[in-house]
Amino acid sequence: MCGIWALFGSDDCLSVQCLSAMKIAHRGPDAFRFENVNGYTNCCFGFHRLAVVDQLFGMQPIRVKKYPYLWLCYNGEIYNHRKLQHHFAFEYQTKVDGEIILHLYNKGGIEQTASLLDGVFAFILLDTANKKVFLGRDTYGVRPLFRAMTEDGFLAVCSEAKGLVNLKHSSAPFLKVEPFLPGHYEVLDLKPNGKVASVEMVKYHHCRDEPVHALYDSVEKLTPGFEIETVKSNLRILFDNAIRKRLMTDRRIGCLLSGGLDSSLVAATLLKQLKEAQVQYPFQTFAIGMEDSPDLLAARKVANHIGSEHHEVLFNHEEGIQALDEVIFSLETYDITTVRASVGMYLISKYIRKNTDSVVIFSGEGSDELTQGYIYFHKAPSPEKAQEESERLLKELYLFDVLRADRTTAAHGLELRVPFLDHRFCSYYLSLRADMRIPKNGIEKHLLRETFEDSNLLPKEILWRPKEAFSDGITSVKNSWFRILQEHIEHQVDDAMMAAAAQKFPFNTPKTKEGYYYRQIFERHYPGRADWLTHYWMPRWINATDPSARTLTHYKSDTKA
Fold first, then answer.
1. Does residue 256 have a known ligand-binding role?
2. pLDDT tens, 487-502?
3. Cα Dmax for the chain
4. Counting Cβ atoms within 10 Å, is residue 401 exposed (0-12), middle (13-18) or buried (19+)?
5. Is 375 among the annotated ligand-binding positions?
6. Where ATP is bound, by residue (predicted)?
7. Is 2 a known active-site residue?
8. Is 288 annotated as a binding residue?
9. Per-residue DSSP letters for 144-166?
10. Tell me: the pLDDT tens digits for 513-549?
């Protein structure tokens, strides 16, 4: 996890512009570099490093003697870089996983490069010999990337939007900043004056398609067919592989643990593999909640079962409310459910950074979208409609759950790894018959639970624990986070403000006081940038006016009487 930043064709003084790059310093607390491009006085790269692999030679932009005309700034992890290096007999100059991008590009061009990368990434690749600039982002947008481009060819790129909003350009006093689409790469021509012109934007991978890099991996051959035992065996193989490849790091590994199905499966499998790898440090798991919250109790049960060094982080009403402003600034969104769910993740990341030396943090993000874990999937009109919805949610992850997961951890210099969004695991799961993936017997994610039923990875009551609304899971049995927020905001936003909401916020007009409150904070930090969020996250098929699972009739929380 790092922070990348680059300008091409800047009209303003680069030493002034580069101050914007310092807005993302939290993403790379270990080192910083600012480098001009030879021959282009108005082009430069900025890089904030979190040293996770090759601490000696890992600074960026990466340049190697063999290709002096290539400059690479990237944020991410390429898990198959060694396999590709050996397969194609590439000679490495460093131990950095991202070096593979330079060799693949030189060998086969940008399309082959993007398709062969097994990992999470956002990159800026400059080829001064062929006068090209390339931008690329992983399938689900696990690693963030934003761009701003003017009509006269000034291009600015950054890991987070906050590193672009204050840039100056003569022809555009207000730079339009937008997220770069996941699963795409862009080709741009570099002109002699340092400006660029976009040539094409290409979607190189769809989540349903088996990735091209599957040809080169070492996963044991999967058994064909859709018999349930075959499917369960294949899923276990792919999930095990998804965790194993993500052990690639020189830093200490930890895991977020809510006590729900997804994070518990990740933690249990991860600990098993760390023991097999004979890692010398105790494996740390982290849970957050208010006193006597269901998540804390369930996470404790899992930690005892698997034998991790478990940390419980308690927070109270005031700490949660006080964090909202800095959380929204970090997130760069005002989406209601994203903000709600981010507070706990932000506070636990803060704790990990301050009190431990765990840096690479695993979590269960992506499973709900892939395996139809949201409670409203019980209301799907058909398995085919549920399948469509699952793919829509995966496509939009970069606006919601992986945005939350990246920004809340990156704000504290941690690197998040999300095995449920492994390319092969996802494409296989999505290739299964639609009727195999829907909730069964009133239980969501039935297939995933069934897959691990005989593994003894988890206690049965955890494996079959129903989905919690986040606002219930982290908070006390006496009062939910959902209710705490409503009570606080009731005193901050009055009916007159709501009556004028459409006039004040014509785009994505907030329909609730909570939505209005978050939007106010967002506009204070990022005025006029509401279009970063195309729409609010909301359950389907139930005419919901609030994203909380508490509004669903199917929902039964442990915390309700």
1. yes
2. 999 999 999 999 999 9
3. 70
4. buried
5. no
6. 256, 288, 363-364
7. yes
8. yes
9. --EEEE-TT--EEEESSGGGTTT
10. 999 999 999 999 999 999 999 999 999 998 877 887 5
